[in-house]
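To assess whether the prediction recovers the assembly geometry, we first specified each molecular entity separately, as shown.
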Amino acid sequence: MAGKLVRKKGKKAGSAPGTLVFSGASPDAEAHWQLLQYNLDSIEQLNLSSLQQLPPAKPDSVRWLNLCGLPGIAPIEQLGQVFSLHPLVLEDMLNTDHRPKVEAHPDYLFVVFKMLRFHPDSREIRAEQISLVLMEQTVISLQETPGNDFDGVVQRLLAGRRLRGFGADYLAYALLDAVVDHYFILLEQCGDHIEQLENELMTAPTTAVLAKIHHFKREMLLLRKVVWPLRELLSSLLRDENPLIKPETRIFLRDVYDHCVHIIDTMETLRDVLSGLLDLYLTSVSNRTNEVMKVLTMMASIFIPLTFIAGIYGMNFEVMPELGWQYGYALILGLMACIGGGLLWYFRRRGWW
Amino acid sequence: MAGKLVRKKGKKAGSAPGTLVFSGASPDAEAHWQLLQYNLDSIEQLNLSSLQQLPPAKPDSVRWLNLCGLPGIAPIEQLGQVFSLHPLVLEDMLNTDHRPKVEAHPDYLFVVFKMLRFHPDSREIRAEQISLVLMEQTVISLQETPGNDFDGVVQRLLAGRRLRGFGADYLAYALLDAVVDHYFILLEQCGDHIEQLENELMTAPTTAVLAKIHHFKREMLLLRKVVWPLRELLSSLLRDENPLIKPETRIFLRDVYDHCVHIIDTMETLRDVLSGLLDLYLTSVSNRTNEVMKVLTMMASIFIPLTFIAGIYGMNFEVMPELGWQYGYALILGLMACIGGGLLWYFRRRGWW
Amino acid sequence: MAGKLVRKKGKKAGSAPGTLVFSGASPDAEAHWQLLQYNLDSIEQLNLSSLQQLPPAKPDSVRWLNLCGLPGIAPIEQLGQVFSLHPLVLEDMLNTDHRPKVEAHPDYLFVVFKMLRFHPDSREIRAEQISLVLMEQTVISLQETPGNDFDGVVQRLLAGRRLRGFGADYLAYALLDAVVDHYFILLEQCGDHIEQLENELMTAPTTAVLAKIHHFKREMLLLRKVVWPLRELLSSLLRDENPLIKPETRIFLRDVYDHCVHIIDTMETLRDVLSGLLDLYLTSVSNRTNEVMKVLTMMASIFIPLTFIAGIYGMNFEVMPELGWQYGYALILGLMACIGGGLLWYFRRRGWW
Amino acid sequence: MAGKLVRKKGKKAGSAPGTLVFSGASPDAEAHWQLLQYNLDSIEQLNLSSLQQLPPAKPDSVRWLNLCGLPGIAPIEQLGQVFSLHPLVLEDMLNTDHRPKVEAHPDYLFVVFKMLRFHPDSREIRAEQISLVLMEQTVISLQETPGNDFDGVVQRLLAGRRLRGFGADYLAYALLDAVVDHYFILLEQCGDHIEQLENELMTAPTTAVLAKIHHFKREMLLLRKVVWPLRELLSSLLRDENPLIKPETRIFLRDVYDHCVHIIDTMETLRDVLSGLLDLYLTSVSNRTNEVMKVLTMMASIFIPLTFIAGIYGMNFEVMPELGWQYGYALILGLMACIGGGLLWYFRRRGWW
Amino acid sequence: MAGKLVRKKGKKAGSAPGTLVFSGASPDAEAHWQLLQYNLDSIEQLNLSSLQQLPPAKPDSVRWLNLCGLPGIAPIEQLGQVFSLHPLVLEDMLNTDHRPKVEAHPDYLFVVFKMLRFHPDSREIRAEQISLVLMEQTVISLQETPGNDFDGVVQRLLAGRRLRGFGADYLAYALLDAVVDHYFILLEQCGDHIEQLENELMTAPTTAVLAKIHHFKREMLLLRKVVWPLRELLSSLLRDENPLIKPETRIFLRDVYDHCVHIIDTMETLRDVLSGLLDLYLTSVSNRTNEVMKVLTMMASIFIPLTFIAGIYGMNFEVMPELGWQYGYALILGLMACIGGGLLWYFRRRGWW
Ligand SMILES: [Mg+2]
Ligand SMILES: [Mg+2]
Ligand SMILES: [Mg+2]
Ligand SMILES: [Mg+2]
Ligand SMILES: [Mg+2]
Ligand SMILES: [Mg+2]
Ligand SMILES: [Mg+2]
Ligand SMILES: [Mg+2]
Ligand SMILES: [Mg+2]
Ligand SMILES: [Mg+2]
Ligand SMILES: [Mg+2]
Ligand SMILES: [Mg+2]
Ligand SMILES: [Mg+2]
Ligand SMILES: [Mg+2]
Ligand SMILES: [Mg+2]
Ligand SMILES: [Mg+2]
Ligand SMILES: [Mg+2]
Ligand SMILES: [Mg+2]
Ligand SMILES: [Mg+2]
Ligand SMILES: [Mg+2]
Ligand SMILES: [Mg+2]
Ligand SMILES: [Mg+2]
Ligand SMILES: [Mg+2]
Ligand SMILES: [Mg+2]
Ligand SMILES: [Mg+2]
Ligand SMILES: [Mg+2]
Ligand SMILES: [Mg+2]
Ligand SMILES: [Mg+2]
Ligand SMILES: [Mg+2]
Ligand SMILES: [Mg+2]
Ligand SMILES: [Mg+2]
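The predicted structure of the complete assembly is given in tokenized form:
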């Protein structure tokens, strides 16, 4: 098994709430903040190594502060000071094993969700945590690992004015949408993998296939743990009348919600199919045992009586009249052929071969 | 397995929401719009190759614009412009793998549902997506594949005045009703197929039957994914007090809702029966293994001891008094018959044959 | 399997809603309406062959119009005209495969439910549909098949004044109560049948018993499809404040509701017991295979080594010193007895016999 | 199986509602009413053979009328007349197979619940129905069978003033509490029985243990049918703002409710453990079959080839050079030892012994 | 099985509610109360052997009264008198098998929950009950067993001013948080144990592993019984607008609630994995039986026919021409080699080895 069933937390139990502990891969490296500031007329892109370089917000502009790869505790603490974020929010940003959720604070919405990727070599689904803070004019996005998951959105912002005409809430929607769109690709890959497992099972039901099915069933458990809370998250974004989200953006959130429900439907179907494969495996093992038994039973049932007859005439009694008959040997061979043929015919009639 | 578990989407993840992508079979062909405009007194039928040919709406008339077979992106974009539809609605019309749903927009209701057909040769259930837009006086219906699913409704409109006396909402109901009525036929076909599988299982429980049961269980999963959301859709049409649907039409929608609940009941029963068949198969394999074992055990238990006795008197010891007896051979044969008969009687008493 | 899994509907899909189609056994026979008109002081009974003979309603009287055996379309159409019933109500009356439900119309309540009977010969549960219309002073009841299910209620009306002192709503309650009371009898019969199956399984677990359990499990599915919606029906009668049902009658409806919940409890228990029987069957087959294997293994393990020893001394080597010993034969027989006895003792100690 | 799956009801289906029918054991015996009338200062105890002897109620006193063992119809009818109880309440009092419930009437609360006892000899759980009527100053309790389940409460009333300081509602609570307290004892006994079954299964997995597990699983079904409705009952007593129950008594009812939820938790755990035992049994049968097969396969695989070799040198061909060799016999015996030892070593390496 | 399925209660059923009965380990020992009284500026720590030594409360200070190890009835009765607690609260404090719950009383909140620890030697999860009373300025915590579970919180109070700046409600939150943080450690240990079981199953699927899986599945049942009610408890603390809990503390309670939901997610995943292991075990037993059968069938199918042939030429008929042939023996040996090789090839082609 490649991954741990339960992720180790660095945090010592009993420490104060809001104590920042980093559970990611590369602690306390330098942070590379990407800043995009735009409105309908203009857009500018900046790379900052510290939030002290953050330029002041312009009126009528949207600011998007993006970070690829969590750098450790210090930059997150700085982020908290600059934007007055609650200590528990900072704690959740650094705890990369958090359940997807949305949390309304007086001045901002805090959203946690997961990017999911299928690794075809290890046949594993790996999750990358993404934290989002949505304010009046600002969106902050933190990605657990390096590599920008939102390249498509950056390109669309730079390429044309369409996306730039909407506010910060629409940008937040666009980031959620990009992640959910990726789930469809993931499900296709999972579906392909399951079909491949099914084919292997049909042609050669080895124990290796069983182990693969068992392993992938567990990967699907991870998928569930990520997608069901996301649905809850989106539904609460739609339901709660938070003023940070404008009515015209709600229509788009409803669209992502639709996609999420569709993904859940497909995911549960895949799970049912996987369970069906395990049942099929068990049944096919029973079937093959049955086949093996039939071969044994036919061989034994035919030859054991014949061997018994041969044994009789191998006995050394002095008085055994048949032994002296001219055609004794031929008669016995004929009798044996009759018995063997009769048993063969009997098994044929019972449908054993 | 005939169909893919998860349908490939053409759309590149990360593209802008509302970007139209066509996932159907024949992209950018010419559209053949069918227009029916009617009131109690008159009805006229028109075929349009472009919506630019669309005549203006008459007061006190209902307009039904029907399209059989999605023609690609351009005609749908035109439709969106002519009727001022939201870009996300257009996107959903072209995405033919959408979950059934109803969506209330300020001026119209957008409904997505599925026509289902059972293909007896491949024993598959295939879905065709249908999109419906209901406006004050207009109904737009888009069918995924060629061939008009609503021929019956067209005939009733042309044949008599009854249906023409109601408004656009009743027409929308009539289209939903036509599709749900077809589900009953589908369930009958599924039921017949399952009974046939049951008969095959009873007469000859081969692995081919097992594969068929397994395959059809998966087809039923598709059915569920279509019918449960339809129930939700109809229930929300009934519950929400949308002014586009008149109270007298609600009684008819309640009737389709009843049918849908009945269909779900029957479908779940069929699923239970199918699951029961799999259990029955497994039990019957165990049973047959047990039968095979009994044959083997009886043959071996009877003849192995007898062969042992024959083996004893086949030994070549110089001093073996029995070998010289006059009736030694006859006595041993008699002993063997007693042992064999005794074992046969014992197995009979245990109910093995 | 005696019955079809899914009932064929006569209706062509796509026909107009409210089109009357008869799915019963004897279409368009003559209708025999039974009319009972009563109040505290008097009661009169009439048989009508047509509703044109229906006498006018008397003030302060309750009218009960009862029909045993659906006669086909024409009399139901006449009923609709006389009492101004909605076409969809008439359609449901004739569709004898309807799900139990209650439907509130402005002037009447329309109720559909099922009489259930256990047929001991075919071990099947058969349903008869009953439709009820409750108006201010009138109750109409339609029974699918001939034979009056409400004989008891008729007798009580004729016999004494008690039941005649209540209104039409109490009469409707009495009809529902008569049907639900019959469910208790049905459950007793089902329980007896299941206990009998259990006894058969305990004494002789043949495949015939398995088929019977499997078959009855399916009959129980039918039971569920009828009883759960009935509970919903009764609960909605209790909850909705329909003026047609007086408060003092509600106490009685709560009593039927109690009975219905009790019936569901018992039914689910029976289903659990049936499922347990299937598990028990599978386990007992495994057990018996294990027993069979033990017999085979003991016979083979004891006699195969002995036969081998006999085989050794049946070899024809010229130099085999043991063959010439005086007590060689006796020694070998003793050795064989020791080996056989040792193996027997070993199997005994392992608890195999 | 000791008890009937479904209890026979004496009542003829179709009889009038409120018709009193007695389903208990000893119909129409004489009733022995126990009357306790008390307030903080005094308490008096009376035995009445008829309710005509009932003394008038004293102001500021609580009256408790208790009956152990249902005497039949007549005394219950008398009770109904004296206290103006609804006929359906009387019917439910006599129907001793009723589901636990609470029913609010204008002047009183009617409560039905069950005393449960574990009979260690037959390993059965038996239920005794208890009906309770709570009025302003009066509590009536009817117990199905002789023997007072409320001896403890009587003792506490007679012993000290504590319980006498509360009203009739507290007395009703005390009776419910006494029954629920007894459920804890029952669960301990069930738990002990299940642990004993588990031990038997571990040491000797015979079919008798299987039958016991199967039987006790059914007893637990009865337990569920009694305890889940009791929880509903208590929750509705807590929720509904019935003036008969004072706020200070509600705190105590919440305590019984807590106990009931705890009992349900434990009960469901016991059910899970029982189901686990059945799975364990099935697995252990498979395991033992596997063990048996290994013994057979090793015996047969070792001795069948050896017997074949012996058979070769038992053939009577005239030209068989080995037979004349000086050490032929010894060589063949050595070869046999090698083959046998090699197979033994092979099976050892595969972990078969 | 190490622990009892159902804990014995000391209390005699039927005793008065609020009767204090001690179900813990060391009844009526001396109590060692720990008192911490603090505000932002100062903190003092006191050890009391009796509550008579309790100093009066200071204004603007928080008092925390902690007890490690339940001492028996008398000190709890004293606690009840000093703080005017309801008798039922005292009863629940002493009943150490209580379900986690929160109970609002007019002047205080009463909370019951469990500390859980994994004991690696016996592979058991053991629970310690903790009772909490939250008043305006006071927190009382009772721990079932000696050893302070809240050492971390004590240290944080003594070490710095942060925690001392909040009120009694925040202290109560910090205690809940300390326990929930410990659950994460427990889940890691459970996860490690399950992975170890999985590895054992993969390398050597013995019955000992089966027993371990079965045993740990039961331990997980205990976990569920503790964690699901805790979620309910926290959710009701969040939902109910109790004035004892200030709005700024609610944000922190939401954080513990998040953790609890995360723990439930992980716990249910672990349960699914454990169930999967049992299925895997059953399948692997079937697989191994199949392997064993193949070995037996191949050995028997190859050697039984050969032995039969040898048996034929071991017969003593006087007229058996083959016996006199020069190359008879060689021919027969060649025939046997052909038959054996052919069967071997056949089994190879069927994939048996
Ligand atoms: Mg993994
Ligand atoms: Mg925390
Ligand atoms: Mg947090
Ligand atoms: Mg992660
Ligand atoms: Mg990552
Ligand atoms: Mg999207
Ligand atoms: Mg398919
Ligand atoms: Mg989109
Ligand atoms: Mg969409
Ligand atoms: Mg489609
Ligand atoms: Mg199609
Ligand atoms: Mg229809
Ligand atoms: Mg209808
Ligand atoms: Mg199963
Ligand atoms: Mg049937
Ligand atoms: Mg219709
Ligand atoms: Mg019917
Ligand atoms: Mg009928
Ligand atoms: Mg009744
Ligand atoms: Mg019983
Ligand atoms: Mg009744
Ligand atoms: Mg009743
Ligand atoms: Mg009883
Ligand atoms: Mg109690
Ligand atoms: Mg334990
Ligand atoms: Mg109590
Ligand atoms: Mg309590
Ligand atoms: Mg404890
Ligand atoms: Mg402890
Ligand atoms: Mg915490
Ligand atoms: Mg299972």
